[in-house]
Write a structure and sequence with these properties.
Elements: H1 10-18, H2 25-57, H3 62-111, H4 114-117, H5 122-144, H6 146-165, H7 170-213, H8 215-220, H9 224-249, H10 252-278, H11 285-327, E1 347-354, E2 365-372, E3 377-382, H12 388-393, E4 403-408, E5 411-412, H13 418-424, E6 425-428, E7 437-438, H14 439-443, H15 452-461, H16 465-468, E8 478-479, H17 488-500, E9 506-510, H18 518-531, E10 536-540, E11 552-557, E12 560-565, H19 567-573, H20 575-585, H21 589-605
Parallel strand pairs: 3-10, 3-11, 6-9, 9-10
Antiparallel strand pairs: 1-2, 1-4, 4-5, 7-8, 11-12
Helix pairs in contact: 2-3, 2-6, 2-11, 3-5, 5-7, 5-11, 6-11, 7-9, 7-10, 7-11, 10-11, 15-17, 19-20
Organism: Parafannyhessea umbonata
Subcellular location: Cell inner membrane
Protein name: ATP-binding cassette, subfamily B
Amino acid sequence: MPKQQQGLTYGQIFKTLGASIREFKASSLVTPLFVLGEVVIECLIPFETAGLIDKISLGGGFGDIAPYAVTLVLMALVSLFCGTMAGITCAKASTGFARNLRHDVFAQIQRFSFSNIDHFSTSSLVTRLTTDVNNVQQAYMMLLRLVVRAPLMIAFSIVMAFVTGGPMAAVFVVVSVLLGFAVFKISLTVMPIFKRIFKKYDRLNDSVEENVSGIRVVKSFVREEHEKSKFNAASGELYHDFVHVERILAWMSPLMTLAIDLIYLFVVYFGSYAIVSSKAHLMGVGQMSALITYGFSMLMSLMMLSMVFVMVTMAEEGARRLCEVLVEKSDITNPQDPLLSVPDGSVDFDHVSFEYSKKAERMALKDIDLHIKSGETIGILGGTGSSKSTLIQLISRLYDATTGTVRVGGHDVREYDLDTLRNQVAVVLQRNVLFSGTIKDNLRWGNQNATDEELVEACRLAQADEFIQRFPQKYDTYIEQGGTNVSGGQKQRLCIARALLKKPKVLILDDSTSAVDTKTDKLIQQGFRSYIPETTKIIIAQRTSSIESCDRIIVMRDGQIDAIGTHDELLRTNAIYRETYTTQNKQSHDVKMSQMDEDQKEADHE
């Protein structure tokens, strides 16, 4: 957990979440006022009703009863108006707050660097944006209405009970204190369980996301039953925790019922005795009726308050998790006076080392000293784990170097405006991602103002236009989420076309042609030379055929540069490159070296 997330106080949580209320402050402030009006009227109605009952019991006529009836109707209408308005303003405030909160969390995630995102799993961020926001919304709605209404109703009911029934109302105080203590004890018991539940929600969502994204692999290895057992295990843990919570919370209902019955029994017994013994001088039937009503109101409010306490307890963990995202500071930010243009595509690594975290056992990159001229085509080759992708991620400042300096266009990448730098350093990542929408929509991620002609030109250079034209809807073909309705090679070519539309100073392909055939790969590189000759091209590849024609090739091993040279130079001098080439081309090194020697002799003879 990041340092910023640890030890958040309630004050920090309220301040952080409160910033998302914004334009809904008025609705939030008005709601408690309407609730106050509703509670006051509801507490006066039994008192007025008691007078009406007493008048009827004394044989009062229509003229005596009519003022009470009119007053009660007016009070009921005012109470209805206040309750309705409280509901409307509360709904507006809570849903608006949730909308703003969801927006703020999502916007914060967009500002994160890769290292910030590494602190949170994808499934956890999804849970926070959905379940946690919904829980906080429900808690906020309850805070605006029920948390105001319940205490006021309890307090006013007890006061009016003393006004109506005198010392007999003391039983209300005793019962409410005992019941409140029991509710508080139950809520404290379930609080740590709710905290565990949210962590298990993350694991459940992680299992779902992993399964759905890798469903083809699951089916190809016939691992459906294994995945179902994994999901059932995660779901089963949630089930047992919720059952445990419900068993504890189930005590609230019988406790409330017992309290209501005790008050009812006490008021009816002693009230009836007072009425009979004093011949209605100490207490009338109306007063006893009002006392019973106040007792019900008080206990129902106490039950309501207990529900709110449980909901707020559950939402408290969600609020804390949301604040963890909102207070997380991005490791990569703009400088005070950023550069707004990139002069050229030159790239320099001056003794750069990098580690993903301070806790890392080893450096991912060690003392990289590399200088690339603008317009050069550079190939990068190395085994799995040699940190090829890590190297290029420092260029677009997806991570910052731990030591040393990375320069683009002669300037430290930390001096640039982030948008400016990333618009001029286009990266086609190893995992190609297309978004739901048409092909045109996806291509215009590279340039939202691109014309249809520019889209077609970029696709021709990326060798994508041919298969697009075979679709019935052509460039208006709808791409499903994740690009599931196009092949891997088609997806790669669309992503390359999208990057070409940016016309960047530096174009990086991170193993982005692995799913296309060798002929298409060479045609794509020919397109690069004709369309963006001044752009620096950096191509990470596993196939030597993809980088043979590069100006220079970098061979990496264990986070370090093992060798730099042309294709022919590395075949002669570097064992890693030579072994890779020989293995892929299925011909011995001796045969290839013999061919090269003969070619050299012919050249010398000529």
